[in-house]
Amino acid sequence: MMKKGQESGSTRRMIMTLLKMKGPLTIGALAEELGITEMGVRRHVLQLEQEALAKTKVVRQAMGRPLHVYSLTERAEDHFPKSYHNLALELLRELDHGSGQEAVNVLFEGRRKRMLAQYGPMMENRNLEERVAELSSIQNAGGYMAEWHQDEDGSYVMQEYNCPIRQVATQYRKACQCEQALFEELLGAKVTRTECMAEGGQSCRYAIVPRKKDKSPEMSV
Q: Which Gene Ontology molecular-function terms are recorded (predicted)?
């Protein structure tokens, strides 16, 4: 049974931890591990199922009634600590050490081109304001916590309050340069970074100014 001194967080969190470490488990096994009633466990597990964080499977036995065992879904993995940035940094350092900085730059440029090909079609036949709004939505889907607004002079500002690649960008500024270039290509506008989290800022802030020679909502990718 889990010792009380080892218990941390809510019952829900402990259930997820047990399913992560020992699953799949039955309601009875979870109740025994936690030292609470099966009814209490069932309520939490059903909630996890409703949120698509847990799933159930019926296991038939040679004798007796079938067992319902529970395990975590792939979606639940987002609730556990990850160190992807450490792995990414290690791989980039190996590439830098073995092939040089230019090879690292080529890697970031390749990422920019792939993202342009992926998101470019979403910007077609839209004016600048619609593109800025779409870009903000794309960044939000990637975890950047972005928002935008239009200033009185007609320019736009997009601000990101989180940077999922901050550890990488701090050591490899080419990541920030490629992101800014990508924004310019997607928006068809002049984009200037006025604040950067990788440089110690509280957010990544971009000033977006329409290009005088490009007033058409069309864009080619």
A: DNA binding
